[in-house]
Amino acid sequence: MSGAAAMAKRPAKQADRVENKPAKVEAFVSLFNEISVRDLIANLKTTVEMFDVGGRTFPLTLNDADGAPNCYICCPTSAYIDYAIDETRNFAAHPLLRRALNALIGACAPLVRASGLDRQAQLNNWLYSTNPVPLLDRPTAASLRAALSARFPDRAIVIRSLNDIADPATIAALRAEGFRMLAARQIYIFADRGAAPAMTRDMKRDRARLRTTPFERVGDGDFTEADYARAEMLYNMLYLDKYTPLNPHYTARYIAEMHRRGIISLAGLRRPGGELVAVTGLFENGGTLTQPIVGYDTGLPVGEGLYRMAMAMAQDHATARGLLFNMSAGAAGFKRRRGALPAIEYNAVYAAHLAFRRRLAIRVMETVLALIGIPLLRRFEL
Question: Does domain 201-341 have CATH number 3.40.50.300?
Fold first, then answer.
């Protein structure tokens, strides 16, 4: 039996995978209501609220089409058009394929715009690229569908970051209540040590590097004001400069406030007695771990292994606590060699209360993504 199949057959554990503690949700929502969103995430425009249903608490974001262009974490046109076009940079060595993909994305752009998905109410949006979703049974799915569609009759109802390893029961419940599943990307799941494969050669090398590195380990309680500013720089070097400026632009103030309020924990590496050279921010939610912040000094030699060590610290955190680690997308080969399993990630969209034109566009999007998008995601590990 595959690792994915084995995990999918454990519904009892799924119930404990994600736990939106009301105090943590309230701390998060309060932060984004006390401080301007742009001061926290520089390329984002959104409104953040709390939403309670069936005894569960969620952060909820509200967005309008006139807020586009916006960061993709709240703007599907940015995710399915701008970010998708940017991702074709990975095919620079295959110019014909790259042109074909650009043409396909361009042809689908009017469909995405016609869906009106940028006018949305997004449930469980922690404003990360990956937002682990609590287990939703069908009665809860029905309750949130009814409540949100009644309150927001002209907004699509969106839940991001569902995947077919961690969330099969939730996906089934949402489908049964009329949600459509729009494939988004391929992500990688590192299970707790009871389910993950034996430590691979690359994982052993990463830990050896951690043991012998001349850089000092920085614990969660050791971060200073200067470290928050440096953490922003390191994140920018990797996610905005090396990858794409379309990624969330988390500011030093965001990192500091999220850390001080106990929403994320931090770890890193620094020069002896000096500045940070690598940083990781970890979000632990129930039995699930994500890593919304990773950064390192890209000016240092690759041989220093900074990225490898940052990822190893996160994997060790997951292992020590028996957590499912959603490693998000990207660096596919790197993550596979470190015991992670691939999974397709979906955006769940409810649109039955919207105008026919928008419903039709979303239905066609679902079909195109299922027939063309998912095979491409799997073939090219996007």
Answer: no
Q: Which amino acid is at 336?
A: R
Between strands 265-270 and 216-218, the pairing is antiparallel
For 279, the token pair is: 């940083």
The pLDDT averaged over each successive group of 10 residues in the chain (382 residues) is 43 65 98 98 97 94 83 95 89 85 91 96 98 96 97 98 96 98 96 68 96 97 97 98 95 98 98 96 97 98 97 95 94 94 97 98 96 90 72
Q: What is the pLDDT of residue 196?
A: 54
Pairwise CA distance, residues 290 & 313, whole Å = 12
What are the DSSP calls for 283-319, one per residue?
EEETTEEEEEEEEE-TTS-GGG-HHHHHHHHHHHHHH
CA distance 116 to 179: 16
Residue 250 has what DSSP assignment?
A: B
pLDDT of residue 299: 97
Q: Which two tokens stand for residue 259?
A: 């850390």
Going from N- to C-terminal start, the domains of the chain cover 3-187+342-380, 201-341
Instruction: Give pTM, 2 decimals.
Output: 0.93
Structure tokens at 83: 């970010």
Residue 338 and residue 206 in contact, taking contact as beta carbons nearer than 8 Å: yes
For 322, other C-beta atoms within 10 Å of its C-beta total: 12
Q: Is the dihedral of CA 252, 253, 257, 258 positive or negative?
A: negative
User: Within 10 Å of residue 95's Cβ, how many Cβ atoms?
Assistant: 9
Based on C-alpha coordinates, what's the Rg of the chain?
Answer: 20
Kindly write down the DSSP assignment for every residue of 31-89, as one continuous string.
Answer: HHHHS-HHHHBTT---EEEEEEETTEEEEEEEE-GGG-S--TTS-HHIIIIIHHHHHGG
Strand pairing partners for 6? none
- Give the sign of the dihedral formed by CA 99, CA 105, CA 110, CA 111: positive
Of 151, 171, 159, 85, residue with least CA distance to 117: 159
The span from the CA of 101 to the CA of 97, in Å, is 6
CA 65 – CA 106 distance, rounded (Å): 19
CA distance 260 to 40: 14
Q: Give the pLDDT of residue 54.
A: 85
What the block records as the tokens of 52 is 């309670």
